[in-house]
Every structure is written in C-alpha cells, then in structure tokens.
Amino acid sequence: MRTRIKVCCIASPDEARLAIEAGADALGLVARMPSGPGSIADEKIAEVAAMVPPPVATFLLTSETNAEAIAAHIRTTNPSTVQVVSHIDPTESARLAEIEPHVRRVQVIHIEGPEALELMAAYSPHVHAFLLDSGRPNAAVAELGGTGRRHDWAVSARLVRASARPVFLAGGMSAANVGDAIRQVRPFGVDLCSGVRTNGRLDAAKLRAFVLAVERADAGLATT
User: Fold this and answer.
1) Is the pTM of this model over 0.85?
2) CA dist 193 to 90, 190, 204, Å?
3) CATH architecture of 4-222
4) Paired strand residues for 6
5) pLDDT of 31-59, one tens digit each?
6) In sequence order, what E strands does 86-163 have?
7) For residues 90 and 126, is the Cβ–Cβ distance under 8 A?
8) Rounded to whole angstroms, how far apart are CA atoms 9 and 30?
C-alpha cells in the first residue's frame, strides 16, 4: 500500500501549490495554537482550503476542545478534514461526529506513555483516522504539535497494529529517516512540517527528497 504524505504548516496558496506539485496527498493548515510553528489566521486557512483541488485533502488543525467550538471552526474555514490536536473528552468526539458528519475527523494521539492505547480505543468509534505525534498536552505551555521531536516508533508500531482506523505518523521526520519510520511503523501516512522547511519556508528540494524517500521505502516493502 502506498504511504500517504501530509505536508503540514502550509502558510499560503503558493506553498499549497508547491506541496501538491511535489505529490502531497494532504495539506495541514495550522490555526491558533498555544505553542509551535506554522499557525495562520482562519481567513488564510479558508483561502487555501478553497483553492486546493480534490483529491488532495485539507486538514484544519484546531486546538478547540469541545464539539460546538470545533464545529464553528470548521464552518469558518471549510476544510475537508478536521485534525483535533488536543486529547478532548471522548463524549465531545462523539458529539462532533453527530453535528459534523460530512467532515472527515482525525484525532491526534500524543505518545507520552501506555495510556495512548486506551485513548485510541475511546476515540475510535467517532473518528476516521488517528495521527500519532510527539506533543506534551499537559505541559505548562501545552505542546500540541510541530515539536520536531521523534517519539518511540516501537510504541507507534504497536498502536498501528491495534488500530481499526488508518494511522498517520508525525514527529521529527525528514528524508533521512522517513524510510526507517515506514519500515518500522507501517503507517497509513506520514506527516511533517519542519523537516521540509528552510528558514521557515517550504523548501522544494527538501520536499522532493522526502517524497522520493517515501516512494523508495514503499517500493522496498512491495518486494519483501
């Protein structure tokens, strides 16, 4: 199976076009966050989401934590997918599925300990996919993504095997290590921000190298 590529922290229509031309399957649009890079105004998110052609998906990364606020954020920005970056109450996840049934819902699981598996089980009935990341949602200043840190891929691999939903892998990836990540974890997709940027800007050469590394890893798995 081909590993999907999600390029996050898209800041403009030009960056969106660059990522799409390179082969991205999905674009991450980061709204206001308590910390981390890449956030843009809701108006810019809506502008980018409106110009992205199918089948490329647009992911709104929202830090809202209740269903009504997340739904309002979706209606303001009109993405195809919402990525909930906080560990919200599963009852809110269920409510969001009721009030926004036509928007794809992705729940982020921050890999901090063994409780990650329990979180996945609680959310699984209400979401379409998961994204494993390296944030620290309970830190004094919450980290909800964009850390550039790897987490334990052995834990991620166990979660992928246990999940009934597709799983994206994020956290500290680049062209240099994404092949190892794919071979170890076997995720549905990979997601990155800083690994394809130079001085904060999307770097076409790094992006091409990353896409090529993913393609090579997939080709290697296909022959084993």
Assistant:
1) yes
2) 27, 11, 13
3) Alpha-Beta Barrel (3.20)
4) 26, 191
5) 998 777 788 999 999 999 999 999 999 99
6) 104-110, 129-133
7) yes
8) 6
